[in-house]
Design goal:
The complex is a heterodimer of chains A (416) and B (121).
Chain A: E1 7-9, E2 14-16, H1 25-28, H2 30-39, E3 47-52, H3 59-62, H4 69-81, H5 106-109, H6 122-134, E4 138-142, H7 155-173, E5 180-185, H8 191-201, E6 207-213, H9 226-235, E7 239-242, H10 258-279, H11 282-285, E8 291-294, H12 300-314, H13 326-332, E9 334-337, H14 346-355, H15 358-361, E10 362-363, H16 377-380, H17 387-402
Parallel strand pairs in A: 3-4, 4-5, 5-6, 6-7, 7-8, 8-9, 9-10
Helix pairs in contact in A: 8-9, 10-12
Chain B: E1 2-8, H1 9-15, E2 17-22, E3 25-32, E4 35-40, E5 55-63, E6 69-82, E7 89-91, E8 96-97, E9 100-104, E10 109-113, E11 116-120
Antiparallel strand pairs in B: 1-11, 2-3, 3-4, 5-6, 6-7, 8-9, 10-11
Classes of the chains: A alpha/beta (416), B mainly beta (121).
Bound molecules: FE2/S2 (inorganic) cluster.
The site of FE2/S2 (inorganic) cluster has 11 residues of chain B, from loops.
Chain lengths: 416, 121
């Protein structure tokens, strides 16, 4: 002993395994669960407004729900006869999957953990494990590769795959657990089909709103969408715009790596969409329509507020529908998810929370299992928030927005 | 403070890294270039299980005297522990993030006596 105050302890050190692609989600997230217990917020209502599953793992199941009999048959044959082929009909970035930083983040590379699927679907098991690790009561499930589907060169393929996915998701996944919910995918490039999606899915179990994947080229303020917004407004459920990066976008083409594309791509996509949403007066046309802006962090919002206010003052005649300042609509008609929350300057973050009225408008999101996921601790540990604000952001704001129970779920599920 | 024996030095050298749960305190022990290092298994970023992550050599970029870049390469000896939650890298010897030394792992005291490795907990 080289320190006289040190005594020899006989406890048996328990070895802990390295984390790899075979690790169980519960082991990966063990620290998050332990922290929630230690800090006492494991008993708070927590709604995670943005988590993902990898729908393409089940793509051979999904394509069986394609309505067009010829397409369905082609997809089915494709999956039977081509081992290792990418998912039928999906566009996307093929091998440019750099999210795991060259294998540094194993749960982003793949999740090969053991799952017994005899009675419960794999995605339900994995989602429950994540909910347990993150102490989440309600998890809003989004797809992953389908976030690029809005860029598909064949709009009819977006329709076919989106409808098949929505059918599969509601039938196979949402039916199994009251805590797993979704914002149903709108095939937005074909407005009449997006309307049909609202009709078909608005009242399905687990559908708490609608989602537009934002990486796409159609302007959301076009007249052809007015019927859709009216229908959604009448359902009382929100419309979410889930940001995405799009490396082929000419504005991003000088960026040399995924770090830069990811940092700018999501934010840029949200900025363009929200600018169109606000300046075209959609909140005036549909005052009860609630919009959610998903997965661009928080720092971009105050910047856009100031920018739009500044320019609007000088050019009001180009946005004549507005009766208030752009930032007023952004603060009162829009909700935002917080992930990936920028934390390197606490003063800036605090001011951002104030400017966007985070107490009522901000929604916790984990983005699990992606590489930049946030645990509920990112909100719980903020030094400038009181407990009421923390509880609102972590769960109550979402519960009120989506009409979910405001109480902690009891006996939520039995983990496998 | 208690000294806890976590195994023989030979065994730990061979393994290169082992992580232990010592009644709720988790510590990773690393062997690199002839010395042992120990770090608490708690990432300063969001509390992730940093010592359970993969080990990667530091990536650096070669720049010529004329400031033209010649691309990336692995450092010959510097190794980083990569936190498996979000990929933040920490030098196995110093515990520091290469881009900001203020961001660092919490050290634990590790030493060898009579061929056994001890941690002070
Ligand atoms: S918790 Fe370690 S990188 Fe985030």
């Amino acid at each position: 002993m080289n320190d006289p105050a040190t005594s020899l302890h006989t406890l048996a050190p328990k070895p802990i395994r390295e984390i790899d692609t075979y690790s169980d989600s519960r082991d990966i997230l063990a620290h998050s669960k332990r922290e929630a217990q230690l800090k006492g917020y494991s008993d708070w209502l927590i709604c995670d407004v943005d988590a993902h599953h990898v729908e393409t793992v089940s793509w051979n199941e999904v394509v069986k729900y394609i309505e067009d009999p010829v397409l369905r048959d082609q997809a089915d044959t494709y999956h039977k006869e081509r081992t290792g082929a990418p998912p039928y009909g999906l566009n996307g970035d093929l091998g440019m999957r750099y999210q795991d930083v060259g294998g540094r983040i194993p749960h982003q590379s793949d999740r090969r953990e053991k799952v017994e699927t005899k009675t419960t679907h794999r995605d339900v098991v994995l989602t429950r494990r994540a909910m347990d690790g993150l102490s989440v009561d309600h998890m809003v499930l989004f797809p992953t590769p389908m976030l690029h589907l809005g860029l598909h060169p064949q709009p009819e393929m977006e329709v076919a795959l989106a409808q098949a996915y929505n059918m599969w998701l509601t039938d196979r996944i949402l039916s199994e657990d009251d805590g797993i919910v979704t914002l149903v995918y709108l095939p937005f490039n074909t407005p009449e089909e997006a309307c049909r999606t609202v009709e078909r899915f608005a009242n399905k179990k687990g559908v708490i709103g609608f989602c537009v994947t934002s990486a796409r080229h159609k302007p959301l303020h076009s007249n052809e969408y007015m019927k859709l917004y009216r229908m959604i407004e009448e359902t009382g459920k929100p419309i979410a715009f889930h940001a995405g990066y799009h490396w082929q976008d000419p504005s991003l083409q000088t960026l040399p790596n995924f770090l830069s594309v990811h940092a700018l791509g999501f934010v840029w996509c949200s900025m363009v969409m929200l600018t169109n949403w606000i300046l075209s007066g959609i909140p005036e046309k549909f005052p009860k329509l609630k919009s959610i802006w998903v997965e661009s962090g928080v720092a971009w919002i105050p910047a856009l507020m100031q920018r739009l206010d500044d320019q609007y003052l000088m050019r009001q005649s180009e946005a004549p529908l507005l009766k208030r300042m752009p930032s007023d609509y952004m603060r009162e008609n829009c909700w935002y998810t917080c992930q990936p929350m920028e934390k390197s300057n606490m003063k800036a973050l605090e001011l951002s929370f104030e400017m966007i009225k985070a107490d009522t408008q901000l929604l916790y999101a984990s983005d699990w299992p992606h590489f930049d996921f946030d645990t509920p601790g990112v909100i719980h540990d903020l030094p400038f928030l009181d407990e009421t604000a923390k509880r609102n952001i972590l769960g109550l704001n979402a519960a009120r927005l989506f009409g979910l129970p405001t109480e902690k779920r009891q006996n939520k599920f039995i983990l496998d | 403070m208690s000294a806890v024996c976590v195994g023989s030095a030979d065994e730990l050298k061979e393994a290169g890294r082992k992580v232990f749960d010592l009644e709720g305190t988790e510590i990773g022990v690393f062997h690199h270039e002839g010395a042992f290092y120990a770090w608490h298994n708690n990432c300063p970023h969001q509390g992730g299980p940093v010592c359970q992550g993969r080990l990667f050599r530091l990536v650096e970029e070669e720049v010529e005297a004329n400031r033209e870049t010649r691309g990336r390469r692995y450092h010959e000896s510097r190794v980083n522990i990569v936190c498996p939650w979000h990929g933040i890298e920490y030098d196995v010897k110093t515990g520091q993030f290469p881009g900001n030394p203020a961001m660092a792992l919490t050290p634990a005291k590790v030493y060898v006596e009579n061929g056994e490795v001890f941690l002070d907990v």
